[in-house]
Amino acid sequence: MMATVKARIDIHVHTRFSADSIADPEDIIAVAKARGLSGFAVTDHNTSECAEYLESVGLMNPSGEAVDGFLIIPGQEITTCAGHLLAIGCSLPSDLKGIPPEEAIELIHRHGGLAIPPHPYDFFRAGIREPILEELPIDALEVFNAATTLRRYNTHARHYAEKRGIPMTAASDAHHPEAVGTAHLIVEVPSLTVAHVLEAIRRGAELHQAYLTPKEALKKTWNNWMRFGKRQSHRPELAQFEARKKSQADSTDQPV
């Protein structure tokens, strides 16, 4: 029998590259390691720049293998015209906002990733609703979101996934380091790689389910407000990367 590794992975995590987070990715990595996670997926809103940054500083392996025993999975939370959609295991362009979900899923699959709608029944957040979900070739469904507005929304998601017979996921939807890993997946894999984790999700992972504390939920809301005054990172490499990206965006926006 082939030996396996039991890995704890949070597949819905935001960094300062999301408009509604102020968390440096290095801080999230430190907390995740301290909590015994084996890795997490970076799922910033409508951008894959964090994965690009982490590769540039050697914290993420473009081959899909772990770095020093810790795995960071590329991803994105795409704002489709029907609601949010997680792309897990692939780096996508940062200009997909408003894309139809069918086209987003086709693009995700073309790049070897998984398409997983998050918080589909949370009516206070932009989930893809059931009538549209019925028509989509999704790979799994987020049935437990640690930051859900009302807990019954997770119950509705689980019932739908069970009815449809699709794999289920649980995740923190962390927007600050203290929330990472609150909910996560437990998978058995031959080795800690992106490809093996994706395959384990397809087979069906064990769900670790816990909710954000009221204090953590309040901090998520506070961080959402604080984004309007987001400060430059104190890390030179990260500050330089962000400045370079801003300069590139500004030059692109210049009239010709």
Indicate the percent of residues in helices. 25-40%
What is the count of DSSP helices, taking H or I runs of 4+ residues? 8
Enumerate the strands of the largest sheet in spatial order, edge to edge or round the barrel.
3-2-1-9-10
> How big is the Rg?
17 Å
Poorly predicted runs are none
CATH architecture: Alpha-Beta Barrel
Query: Any idea of the CATH topology?
Result: TIM Barrel
Structurally, how many domains make up the residues? 1
* Main sheet record: 5 strands, mixed
Main structural class: alpha/beta
The CATH first-level class comes to Alpha Beta
Strand element count = 10
Q: SSE string, helix = H, strand = E?
A: EHEHEEEHEHEHEEHEHH
CATH-wise, what's the superfamily?
Answer: Metal-dependent hydrolases
Q: For the terminal residues, how far apart are their CA atoms?
A: 63 Å
% residues in beta strands: 15-25%
| Overall 3D form | globular
Q: What do the pLDDT scores average to?
A: 93
